[in-house]
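pasting for ref
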Amino acid sequence: MSAEPIKGPASYFPSIEKRYGRPIGEWQKLVQDRLPAKHMDLVALLKTDHGMGHGHANAIVAHVLAAGRT
């Protein structure tokens, strides 16, 4: 039985943790604490205040927002 590869925004999480040195849960909490807010405003926050690249910031925000919809 083979493990399914991680798809979607979560596929970025290992590289985000490695590059920025913080657990993904901390990044998710940072975004959650600023809700409600617009998707791109949250992406801009991560990019501007934390030096995160657009793809990584977008992945975290998309994951947090999708989890809130379930």
